[in-house]
Amino acid sequence: MAAPVWAQATFDTKAKFAVLMDHETGTVIFQKDADLPMEPASMAKLMTIAVVFDQIRTGRLSFSDEFFVSEHAWRTGGASSGGSTMFAELNSKISVENLIRSVIIQSGNDAAIILAEGIAGSEASFAAMMNELAEDIGLTGSYFTNPTGLPDPDMRVTARDLADLARYLIREYPQYYHYFSEPDMEWNGIKQGNRNSLVELGIGVDGLKTGHTEAAGYGSVISTKEGGRRLIGVIHGLTSMSQRAEEGRKLITWGARAFERVAAYADGAIVAYASVYGGESGSVGLIGNGEVALYLPRGSRKCLSAEVQYNAPLRPPVLAGDQIAELRVFCDDRLVQVAPLYAAETVLEGGITRKAADALRQLALGWL
Fold it and tell me: Carries keyword Signal (predicted)?
């Protein structure tokens, strides 16, 4: 979905690629070349963590499992490699939980390889698992070749995909999200701080991951709940760590402060009705998932309009709680938010008379 024009006109960034997304709805507030391929650097480790969390959820892996530190992991991702490292000792064993913490906090390349080898036997086999999960999530512009994000000409992501991946991690694994905001980790007598410097800046950022290579520049995936809602930001292609921190701070702070929360519909309130073809009722009420709260550009209430959009005609059965529509909010014809809407009640298939009447109405409206 394209970012709101209003947002595009009132914010800019030095990043080559950027996205700011509302976590709850997936609405993109700001974007800059969000669908162009880019080198992920260590931000690819978010997909590594997604695979690991998926393995834990399905019971194929536990936090207490221990994996062996191979010579490949030690040489490729260890201290002698010159990259981000956990300083894992050759031929030692490390628990899955500590490997997860290292990947997230220290960006340990050795930790990522150890996890990949422990789960799939090799980096290549693990990369196949990464791509399979990426497809399930809907990351259509990404392809992974290793668990570390170390340079590979075939590996690519998009800023939008990284935001969607972060949204997936936050939504599906809230019980593990605390790892992303841990300030530091010590291993093998060496203490390292969280590489996401915004976590310690006091602006509400609580994740997720930074990345850097010489070719790609500096980037980060960040998130905050400041301003009353969770936002996810992605920036990449910057020239220094300080520029990455400043542009990330600017993006996430603008998103949190430039919008105000408006309680539009109470919990259970009917927002609109959608037509049902051939149902025992000719329409179904549409409600939000709890209160429908809109986040609108400050000072924009006089410009507002809205529409309900769904794929008509709906056909029974329509089950209570099904997401079947969305509320699209505009400011002077510029899209500013999308909110999902759900069926307020169940509508089952109707009788012959009901079907015939609906068929005539549908035809009159040009839906058939």
Answer: yes
